[in-house]
């Protein structure tokens, strides 16, 4: 199956905008394993099947310095173990990135401090294994007791059960005990309080019964309860961890370091944290600017889309101020830094994001809200049962037994499973459709929204210009322009090169930063760039980005460009309106451009030229529940401030981190798809709550009346859990029947997104 | 009753063996890439570097 082929063609030519990490950066990011071996972990967001794994692995293994290469498909990473030196030559880690790129995949460094190895997940799985082992063994012994083992045998079985259960409660139950203790200490109560209480009381009571040669013991119930609840907790944790590692693993934005030029002319590559204000930095074309600074020498075009979301680059020269995170496109620059990394523009955005966090923190998850009413009710019920039986019989032991039975039967086993199972199934469905969910509560919030606000550049549009008047221009002229454009990384040049690829031009070609490209050929001097550069005259600007090709100062052709709408944008907006949601555009771009996009998509409510703070205010205004969709750094604070947020995988690192959902593939139809799935998941969760309550209505009277033998409790508890899980799995069959799967052609690897 | 004296220990021992096997597999990283594992089954290569 050649599912990965289309990605290969597109990625290799569109490499211009996204610079590969520098060699020094890769060395800095590599981990030494000792014995001359180094390990580098790269994120490869494009891998998605077995063919991708073997392509990348064999490409890397073919290199002599590579010792091991292994692709992890779940987290979309490749870890490469390589020798520092081969045959006396220092290895060049940059060639690994090139080897991966040559196969048609993008490779990025991981964000610093993103070391995975989820310890908590491993602990949880171990606890599930241990409690599962204990539960099966105790259940085996219990079945013998229920089927009529007599006095001595029964006592023996109870004692063995007690010995298996005790370490299990300590080992596997510690998650609940810790959480319950935390809640109680702060004067709150949560779902874990009744669990911890029921487990402890049932164990204590059973032990007491066993010592007194009693007929009933509840060891099986307490351990099985732990087992089921731990499954729920593990699923919950697993879903979050998986999406988070995939999200954080993608491209990063702030460079890890830069080349510092000392006053004596020596150069040194230094980590970004160690760069101080007042130092001189060399920024090559294609590098990102690490800290805020002022240009000393050189001129270039800067891609400032991370700052204001505007797609067209701007020209900078000596004396201009530049901001951290912007991409230097065409010429080398020498900067004097004006701020350290922690005071730079990126850090400022982070501060704004923290400030916006408040709106999100007030949200309580459905399970927590349920627990707030559920656990006091359960405790009260058990207490009333105890008092009631004391009044009726006056037998402390019997009353205690029945109260414990009530606690066990009402324990939120089904509730503990109800939410995570539905969310894991829903997240799995979304994942197949190319949407990653960071957190279960994000789906709960997405089901509640009433307004969708979208960013323009990079979200509604792809953020890449495309040639619109190719049919008006002679083939030969287009080919000449494309040949010139091949020498630049400017987005317009890249677009021009894409429009006509097979082309060649003899001559001396040079790029003049901030102006255009010049070629001295036998025919004369060709120039491609702004009108003033190409023809030496000042022309009228149409508002759209344009480029002029001239020969000896005479205009040959005028190329016009426009930003392309993201596939499925119109359909998605229509689908959102159909779902009864209000839509709007929030953009940092100029007004006419935004108005035009709004008109084309049928969005009446748009706002242009907004600063990051302006976007936050627009999101927070009016007390609506907003889904914010955006990609740039300038959207990140608004993504945080919104009720729930979504970002495309091509988004800036900060944007992806701030968003609750990330969609991997190009079409915008991911938005209505995610909303529908979340709403359906919300319905199933409510059904599960209803089922769990219905079960309690039947089971609790039985327990209060004293008919709940351990057998009844075990059967009731398992049945309720199985019903809840079965209901959650309905989401799968329901989903595939009603929601249309994204067509196969849209399921291209994310690597083709550029 | 006599049979129980050795059957129960045997049952517990076998259970703990499988538990130990699972914990070992977890520790050795076999559950770290479940998606990849399902594809690697189909891969005929021997996993060695192929040097032509």
TrEMBL record, chain A:
It comes from the Bacteria. NCBIfam families: ATPase-IB1_Cu, ATPase-IB2_Cd, ATPase-IB_hvy, ATPase_P-type. Belongs to the cation transport ATPase (P-type) (TC 3.A.3) family. Type IB subfamily. This is Nitrogen fixation protein FixI. GO terms for molecular function: ATP binding; ATP hydrolysis activity; ATPase-coupled monoatomic cation transmembrane transporter activity; metal ion binding; P-type ion transporter activity. Pfam families: E1-E2_ATPase, HMA, Hydrolase. GO terms for cellular component: plasma membrane. Signal peptide: none annotated. Residues 38-108 form the HMA domain. Its EC number is 3.6.3.-. Its main location: membrane. Keywords: ATP-binding, Cell membrane, Hydrolase, Membrane, Metal-binding, Nucleotide-binding, Translocase, Transmembrane, Transmembrane helix. GO terms for biological process: metal ion transport. The keyword Hydrolase applies. SUPFAM superfamilies: Calcium ATPase, transduction domain A, Calcium ATPase, transmembrane domain M, HAD-like, HMA, heavy metal-associated domain. It is found in: Cell membrane; Membrane. The keyword Cell division does not apply. The chain crosses the membrane at residues 124-144, 156-177, 217-235, 373-392, 398-422, 688-705.
Automatic annotation (TrEMBL), chain B:
PANTHER family: FIXS PROTEIN (PTHR41532). It comes from Sinorhizobium fredii (strain NBRC 101917 / NGR234). The gene is fixS2. InterPro entries: Cyt_oxidase_maturation_cbb3. It comes from the Bacteria. This is Nitrogen fixation protein FixS2.
